Amino acid sequence: MSGPRRPTDPPPSSPLRSNRKDPQGLERYYVLTKGRSGPGGSASSLDVATLIVSRAAPAPGMQHEYADILRRCREPLSVAELGAHLGLPFNILAVLLADLLQAGHVEARDPIPAHDAGRGPDLALLEEVLSGLERL
Fold this sequence. Notes:
This protein is mainly α. Helices cover 41% and strands 7% of the residues. The chain is built from 6 helices and 3 strands; from the N terminus they run αβαβααβαα. Strands 2-1-3 form a 3-stranded antiparallel beta sheet. The radius of gyration is 20 Å and the shape is globular. The termini are far apart.
């Protein structure tokens, strides 16, 4: 049985009531990013098509999200795919990736620039895509 409810407290089912134990809440994002709202430095150029590749294995005691990123990016993975796998919004993921980039744990590979795309298909890229599809 719960204690008496004060008249100013929202009912338990109200959307105004915050669930302090909710790991998906805004508090979790604040803690993950240490209060930062976006990446800085060279990581500010990240976009959803940027490919991320691990350059190190997760270290013991490393924050869970960092270790998860390193495990998932053993093969190149786009920021959009990584965000979907981890269930993190782009800005939050970009802050975490900025930390990993700065530490040298991951490498960011830019997608094909638009000015190069007009020259025709990159045969090496098409072969990699075909190889990846065949593995599925």
